[in-house]
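User: Before I run my own analysis I want an independent prediction to cross-check against. Here's the chain; please return only the structure tokens and, at the end, one sentence I can use as a sanity check.
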Amino acid sequence: MTDKVGRGMNRNQTVAVAGKQFNPLEQDMQMLRKAERSNTLPTSFRRGDIEIKQEDLKILEERQVQLKGRQRRGSITLSKTDEVEMSRFWESCDNIELHLHGKLSSNPSDNIPGAEREAVLYKLKEPKLLQEKYKFIYSCVKGSKGYNDTSPNQDNFSYTVFNGWDIIVVMDGHGSCGHRVSTRVVQTLPYYLCHSTKFNKYTHNNTNDTNKTNDNFHTDIHIINPEDIHQALNDAFGKASEDLLGFAIDSDVDIQASGSTCVMFLMKDDIFYSANVGDSRICIGYSKAEKSEVIFETLDHKPSTPGEKERIEASGGEIRTLRYDDFTVDRIFVKGFDYPGLCMARSFGDECVKSCGVISAPEITGPNKIDLNKGAFMVIASDGVWEFIESQWCVKAISKKLGSETAERIVGKLSKEARRRWKQEEGEYCDDITCCLMQLGRKK
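Assistant: Structure tokens:
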């Protein structure tokens, strides 16, 4: 069994500390078996998922049956990484300092708009050390799909410390089984990265001490081969995508029109990388600089983004612009059909548009060097934050508060501001909102 530890700010967020029994992720089996589709589609479609017509749903169901047929013929291999194996790895691997990820639950209180997602924590026995030692704080809040909404929170996140590297992942699921996609990949992605021989050879002691200052913050950029890191990230994303196919078949999860965005932050000392698919985002700023500026941010993969649009249309996908009184949104459809209406050009899952140019290959940046003497901080968040909050506003607001308020309070205010703007723009509809804040440059 695991112990649950409450957290501050009068929120429902809790952490389940994993014990030595290697409990497989504390997943609720009722949720795993539950019928998915009717419980997740929103009642407003301006910002949410497109409502798919019954005749198109039948086509998607047939495609899912064909997917299972591919597995029987041997072109798809069922996942060989089960939850028990991953749980055992997080708990027993000597190079893991900690691992944290959001828990899948069918507790009715977890599906109330505004509820915080519970997390499972490995190795670190005192959850308060996440903020005190690792300078990491998170919030994953259930949104509202309309009146009397009880659909699952489809966002998820994970944080892993491996061989001196910080690995943070945020995912934003969509479609009827989006919560299953995000919950699976948010665990398998760091798992496959940590198993990469291109990545795990760079242990905490591989840096050149003569090139470090006394604060132990600086890495000799020439010690780590960037090509190894890029290859390891590409391989991890590829394996996580392949695993998702096998997992979907094995667990009867429909991923034809369900999927998830993903953004990953990878850092060691003062060097960081990013890898992303879709429109979840990282932004970085300085709290001690003369001017509050965004010094780094990932680029969203929208259907209209140059390069993304060309690939989609060259592959036979159709991009339609849906117009409302106050804004427009571009969505991707299978040509000649009214599904899936995807509003990002890269994602995990979404098998019905994989042949239409929607890819799960990440856009990778790095190595990027950062000045840790300027109070560097990083925000990694789902589109629930970025839909109505610009990166520059976010950096400016946080830089003003760091030093005078706790990181937990700052994250709470950011989440609250995002919800306020959703209500102002969309009334009853509010996306799930995940935001994580890390103050960069802790001593290791």
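Sanity check: The chain is about 30% helix and 25% strand.
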